[in-house]
């Protein structure tokens, strides 16, 4: 075994504590991705290395490793490669997202579009997608490539739908949830699916892991949407306020609209100017009780995620770690609630 832990130890609360059981695997992933830069043509190698260096918590690879637990000398290479595939797809979506949102900061560094321009960034994202699918095709089973290809297509579909709905004050809540299930939850889902599948768990356990990932992904996007409004740009390390300024109406804004606390005219003015009065908008959210309602919806998804894992806890050895991760996301959301 490469990593073990004792469930009798005190429950970890910090992210570094939570991922400690897979720290060695994450280091292996970093080394693998660093080497991936050399797989690209010289024209884009520097750009790829820059994007790989400016990464966040790598939650999706963590999901692959936890869902594939226990990690052994026999399965680590497969899990590292699978997590690299997911991370490259995720990285490609971020490059494209930042273009659409006119974001200039990501993880306290310039975005690819701010550094090289939108045209080059679009093609860079395409190159990252392509390399991810190339790695997926190298697996001995076609199931990995099939799952990743489907997930990538669904992520793109979600982004396209969101792009078409920019500035649409009549964007329905069910459509919002459809978009975030595609654009965010899909990669969480496929991460858990790949880990559990590659470690040979039963179909029931694999499906439960995938459902955990899907629900956690929805909850995480709701948290991220609220953080875009309430967060501190320096602490979070990315451009905030881009959702409203670009006409991307997320759950807090849609609930304000639904309840009549803000008008479509006001949203149109924000979109046209590209700016919004942060303090005024924050006051609207607090006075209307929208923050509490967003938190309730978030908790519904987190509870469902945990229930999926608990249902297979007798077989699924990684359940403890996945539950710790969901608890961490709960705590992150609580800061804004």
From TrEMBL:
Q: Which Gene3D superfamilies match?
A: Farnesyl Diphosphate Synthase (1.10.600.10)
Molecular-function GO term, any one = metal ion binding
Lyase found in the keyword field? no
Biological process GO annotation list?
isoprenoid biosynthetic process
Q: Keywords in UniProt for this one?
A: Magnesium, Metal-binding, Transferase
Cofactor dependence is on: Mg(2+)
Q: Looking at the Swiss-Prot or TrEMBL record, what is one Pfam family this protein matches? A: polyprenyl_synt
Q: Which PANTHER family match?
A: ALL TRANS-POLYPRENYL-DIPHOSPHATE SYNTHASE PDSS1, GERANYLGERANYL PYROPHOSPHATE SYNTHASE
What the record says about family reads: Belongs to the FPP/GGPP synthase family.
Q: What is this protein called?
A: Polyprenyl synthetase family protein
What is the protein's species of origin? Answer: Rubellicoccus peritrichatus
User: Lineage of the source organism?
Assistant: Bacteria, Pseudomonadati, Verrucomicrobiota, Opitutia, Puniceicoccales
């Amino acid at each position: 075994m490469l990593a073990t832990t004792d469930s009798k130890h005190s429950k970890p609360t910090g992210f570094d504590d939570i991922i400690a059981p897979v720290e060695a695997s994450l280091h292996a992933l970093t080394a693998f991705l660093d080497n991936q830069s050399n797989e690209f043509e010289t024209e884009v190698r520097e750009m790829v290395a820059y994007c790989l260096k400016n990464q966040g918590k790598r939650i999706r690879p963590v999901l692959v490793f936890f869902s594939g637990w226990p990690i052994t000398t026999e399965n680590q290479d497969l899990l590292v490669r699978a997590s690299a595939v997911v991370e490259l797809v995720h990285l490609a979506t971020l490059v494209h997202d930042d273009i659409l949102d006119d974001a200039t900061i990501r993880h306290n560094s310039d975005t690819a579009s701010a550094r090289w321009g939108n045209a080059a960034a679009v093609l860079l994202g395409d190159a990252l997608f392509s390399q991810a699918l190339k790695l997926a095709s190298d697996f001995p089973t076609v199931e990995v490539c099939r799952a990743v290809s489907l997930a990538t297509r669904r992520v793109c579909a979600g982004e396209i739908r969101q792009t078409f709905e920019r500035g649409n004050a009549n964007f329905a809540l069910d459509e919002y949830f459809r978009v975030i299930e595609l654009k965010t939850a899909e990669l969480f889902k496929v991460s858990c699916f790949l880990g559990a599948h590659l470690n040979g768990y039963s179909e029931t356990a694999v499906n439960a892991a995938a459902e955990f990932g899907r629900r956690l992904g929805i909850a995480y996007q709701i948290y991220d949407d609220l953080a875009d409004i309430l967060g501190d740009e320096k602490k979070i390390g990315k451009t905030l306020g881009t959702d409203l300024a670009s006409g991307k109406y997320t759950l807090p804004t849609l609930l304000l609209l639904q309840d009549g606390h803000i008008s479509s005219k006001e949203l149109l003015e924000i979109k046209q100017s590209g700016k919004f009065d942060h303090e005024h908008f924050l006051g609207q959210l607090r006075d209307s009780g929208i923050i509490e309602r967003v938190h309730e919806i978030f908790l519904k998804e987190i509870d469902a995620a945990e229930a999926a894992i608990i249902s297979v806890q007798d077989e699924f050895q990684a359940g403890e770690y996945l539950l710790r991760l969901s608890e961490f996301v709960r705590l992150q959301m609580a800061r804004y609630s």
